[in-house]
Amino acid sequence: MYSKCGFIFEAEMLFKKMSTKNVVAWNFMIFGYANHGYSIKAIELFIEMMEKKGCKPDYLALTIVLTACCYARMVDGG
């Protein structure tokens, strides 16, 4: 909810405090970053989700990160 209202840093604080994060929580945070102009941060979080946390992305996560690549003009990254 915080990220939808533009409070991305408040959303980030809550996200970091979560003891268990499922793909839905990751998606909300990645989308929040991408939607508010933090495309690089969104992509970094997506990579962290997969590589460091072992969370398998769903179709929505892939769509969000592709959108973030477009926003960042990272055509090769997508």
Automatic annotation (TrEMBL):
Gene3D superfamilies: Tetratricopeptide repeat domain (1.25.40.10)
Protein name per the record: Pentatricopeptide repeat-containing protein
UniProt PPR repeat ranges: 22-57
Recorded superkingdom: Eukaryota
Protein biosynthesis recorded as keyword: no
Keyword entries, A-Z: Membrane, Repeat, Transmembrane, Transmembrane helix
GO biological process: RNA modification
MF terms (GO), sorted A to Z: RNA binding
Membrane-spanning parts: 23-47
Keyword Protein transport: no
